[in-house]
Amino acid sequence: MMVKQITSTLISLALALPLLAQDDLLAGLEAEQADQKTLVDATFKGTRLINGHSIETRKQGVMDFIIAHRFGTIDGGAYELFGLDNALVRIGLEYALNDRLYAGAGRSSFEKTYDGFVKYRLLRQSTGKGSVPLSATWLSSMALKTLKDPTYDLQFTDKLAFTHQLLLARKFNNGLSLQLMPTWVHRNLIGETDLNNDILALGMGGRIKLSQRVALCAEYYYQFQHLNENTQNALAIGVDIETGGHVFQLQFTNATSMVPKGFVSETTNDFFKGEIHFGFNVSRTFQLN
Description:
Blueprint: H1 2-34, E1 37-39, E2 62-73, E3 87-96, E4 101-108, E5 113-123, E6 126-128, E7 135-145, E8 160-173, E9 176-187, E10 198-209, E11 214-223, E12 234-243, E13 246-253, H2 260-265, E14 277-287
Antiparallel strand pairs: 1-6, 2-3, 2-14, 3-4, 4-5, 5-7, 7-8, 8-9, 9-10, 10-11, 11-12, 12-13, 13-14
InterPro entries: DUF5777 (IPR045916)
Pfam family, one: DUF5777
Protein name: DUF5777 family beta-barrel protein
C-alpha cells in the first residue's frame, strides 16, 4: 500500500513539473514583452480615410498611384443615371521617402486644380515599455486653381490655398479605429461674397472592420468659420475593400472637391437633402527599392 502511494505521488509530480515549467516560460515571455516596445500598425487600410488623409504613410521606397472619381449628385435621378453621367477625376502619385516622411502630388479636373502635400509621422501608437496611446501625423498641403476666370486678372499667388492638419488616431482593437483632424485652411484670395481667408475646422472619423478585408468608414468636418453662407460641413460614408496590392474605397459624400482646401471649406451640397455624390478611390502600391 505504501509503495502504491509513493508511486502515485511521483507520477503526479512528474506530470506537474512540465506545467510549472510552461507557466514559468509564459511568465518570462510576458515579462520580456512588457519590456519591449511594439508599434501598432494598420490603424487604417490606406493613406486616405475617405476624402481626407489618415495618419497612415507608406514604408520607405513605396510608391502609391491613386485614382479618385466623384460623380454628379444622385438626386439627378435616372435621367442623369444618378450622377454617373458627370464625373470628376483626380490622378495622384505619392512616394515614401522614409518610414515617416511621405509626399505626393496630383491634378484634379475640378477647377483644374494641382495639389501637393507632405506628411510626417510625429508619433506612433505602441504597447509595452514606454507605450504611446495614439498616433500623430502632420499634414501640409498646397493647391493651385488654374481654372481661367476672365473677370479678374489674377496673379499666381492669388490662386494658391494652403491646408495644415494634425491627424490624431487610436486603434482601440482590431475592429475599431478613430481619428480627429484639427484643420486650418488659408486662401490667399477670397471672392466678393466670401467672409474669411482662414477657415478653422475639426474633422472626425473612424473605421469599423466588417471582415478581414472589408471595413465601414465615416468622416465629418465641422467648420468653426464658414467661407460664405452657402458652404456646408462635409460628410462622407464609405466602404474599404482590400484586395492584395489594391485598396478600393467606395463612398457617398456631399463634397465635390478631392483636395483638402476644397472639401473642408468649399462644400456647398447638403447631404441630408440628397445632394450626395457617389465616388471611389483606387490605390495601387509599388515597391521601388
